[in-house]
Every structure is written in structure tokens, then in C-alpha cells.
Write a structure and sequence with these properties.
The protein is built from ten helices and twelve strands. The protein is an alpha/beta fold. The chain has a single domain, classed as Alpha-Beta Barrel (TIM Barrel).
Length: 308
């Protein structure tokens, strides 16, 4: 009776599993701030994805961590870069796997910012060409969806033009449209080694005090050609997810980010709460707010333990 009358029916097949991919072979590095999540080389990535697919996971999001970083993030659009190689190997092994690639520079720059820097300022327009070429390199490697997370103004339009002009008209853009400057990203920056070396990202990520601005950013990205829009983070921004859902008919993604994941892991490991109960409640709340799909580090556990 309780199941029959439930207003929201959650679907674990709408979950996306993120991965951090590094150079080398046989690499598996634990991330202390994200229990259960590792940095892995491409060969181990293929093994992990195969195991996850046996569980039922069908969608992944890839973040690349290069061996060498520089001030322009030039490894991001390297045709033989870490993400590009990972995509090719995964597609060769699992043609039906849906591969989403993160398009940003922060993992590739030695200063940790998401765009090209001049002095102590992030340069919006000079960053667009590099971001667009990075997206193109991912599409050429076989990515199914490209997901720009940098928050540079105009990057969705720049990526759409480059993809279309290169014959990749079928590649959708999943835009990090309403991405807030958030303390919940701390464990991710530890995992990716992408903490800014000076200043912060408040000049190009959104102020968490603002809600109307989220709709402005979402509408701008839709006008530029976004096919799916995202709200990030999720748990403290359920009102934003709900507002975007009310005003937008495009598919809506939410990112259940690293800090949200690690809080649950900490509570569960210390016996403060039922970990799987927390996961089910949090993911259901995000779906209830209006998300069509969720990127979550809990994805593997949800399938392994049939949490939803």
C-alpha cells in the first residue's frame, strides 16, 4: 500500500557514476576525503566499469587528472590526453556504455582555475576556444555527451558551434548551467588536485544567496544550445532544482556532489545514522524536487545494495 501510494517513484537507472582517471597502469589511489572512491588508471577504469555494468550501471562521467599541468591547461584538449584515451578504451570494450565527459580546465591548470589566467584574473573569452576544442576532442574520441562545467560565459554556444562545424551535430551538451560557488566541493578538489592556487571561483561560479540568477543562467545556456541543464550542488539547492523544473522543459540533471557524499559516509561509518537510509532519502529528495537524472558517487552502492 505504501509503495502503491508513493508520489515519487525513484529510478536507479537515472543515476550516473563519476570516475577520476589518472595516467599510468595499475593505478588505484584511495581518496581519503571520499571513502570508497579512487583515482584510477585507464586499465583499472575498464575493469571497474565492467563490474559496475554487471550490477546495472550504464552511465559514467569522466574527470581526467593529467601527469603534468600548466598555466593554460593544455592537456585538456590533447588528442591523446587522459580522458580521450579513457573514452576510446571504454567505447572499445563497452559500445553500449553512455559516456559523459567533463569539459573544464581546472584539473589541467597548475593554478587550479577553470579558465585561462592573466595576472590574477581569469580571462573569460580567451578560455572559450580551448574549452570548445576540448569538447571536440572528447567527441572525436567517442564521448556520447559533453558536459562543460567551467562557468565561462558563452561556452555552450562556442562548443555547439565547434561541434556542429566539425560534423558532430548529434553530440548533446549537458551544461552545468546553475553551478554555485560552494564549500561542498572540498573533497572533489582533493580528488582532482584542482583547488585554486590563488583567490577563489566566486567571480565565475554563482553566489549561493541568489536564486533568480539561476534561471537567468539556465535560460542563457538553453539559448546557446544546451540539450540538458544541470543544478550543482543538489542537497542544499533543492529549491533551485524545483524552480528550474517549473520553468524549463529540457531534461534536468542534478549533481549530488562530493561533500554531500562524504558527509553521508562519515555519518554512516561512525554509526550516527543508517547510511543506506540516508542515501535513499537524499536521492529521493533530489528526484522529488524535479531532477530527471542524478550524478552521484553513491551510484555503485545503490546498485550493489539495491538501495532504491
Amino acid at each position: 500500500m505504501r509503495t502503491l501510494t508513493a508520489e515519487i517513484v525513484t529510478d536507479k537507472n537515472k543515476l550516473i557514476m563519476p570516475h577520476f582517471v589518472v595516467e599510468g597502469r595499475g593505478v588505484r589511489e584511495e581518496i581519503p576525503s571520499m571513502p570508497g572512491i579512487t583515482r584510477i588508471s585507464v586499465d583499472n577504469l575498464v575493469r571497474d566499469v565492467e563490474q559496475d555494468m554487471h550490477l546495472g550501471v550504464r552511465q559514467v562521467l569522466l574527470f581526467g587528472i593529467p601527469a603534468v599541468k600548466d598555466d593554460r591547461g593544455s592537456g585538456a584538449n590533447d588528442r591523446n590526453g587522459i580522458v580521450q584515451r579513457a573514452v576510446r578504451e571504454l567505447k572499445k570494450a563497452f559500445p553500449d556504455l553512455l559516456i559523459i565527459t567533463d569539459v573544464c580546465l581546472c584539473e589541467y591548470t597548475d593554478h587550479g582555475h577553470c579558465g585561462v589566467v592573466s595576472g590574477d584574473r581569469v580571462q573569460n573569452d580567451p578560455s572559450l576556444e580551448l574549452l570548445a576544442d576540448t569538447a571536440l576532442s572528447h567527441a572525436e574520441a567517442g564521448a556520447d555527451i559533453v558536459a562543460p562545467s567551467d562557468m565561462m560565459d558563452g561556452r555552450v554556444g562556442a562548443i555547439r558551434r565547434v561541434l556542429d562545424d566539425s560534423g558532430h551535430t548529434e553530440i548533446p551538451i549537458l551544461s552545468y548551467a546553475a553551478k554555485y560557488s560552494s564549500s561542498f566541493y572540498g573533497p572533489f578538489r582533493d580528488a582532482a588536485g584542482s583547488a585554486p592556487q590563488f583567490g577563489d571561483r566566486k567571480t565565475y561560479q554563482m553566489d549561493f544567496r541568489n536564486s533568480r540568477e539561476a534561471l537567468k543562467e539556465v535560460f542563457l545556456d538553453i539559448e546557446e544550445g544546451a540539450d540538458i541543464v544541470m543544478v550543482k550542488p543538489a542537497l542544499a539547492y533543492l529549491d533551485i532544482i524545483s524552480s528550474v523544473r517549473e520553468h524549463v522543459d529540457l531534461p534536468l540533471c542534478a549533481y549530488n556532489v562530493s561533500g554531500e557524499y562524504s558527509m553521508v559516509k562519515l555519518m554512516g561509518s561512525n554509526g550516527y545514522a543508517d547510511e543506506w537510509g540516508l542515501v535513499a532519502e537524499i536521492l529521493t529528495s533530489i528526484f522529488r524536487a524535479g531532477a530527471d537524472m542524478i550524478i552521484s558517487y553513491h551510484t555503485r552502492d545503490v546498485f550493489r545494495y539495491n538501495i532504491l
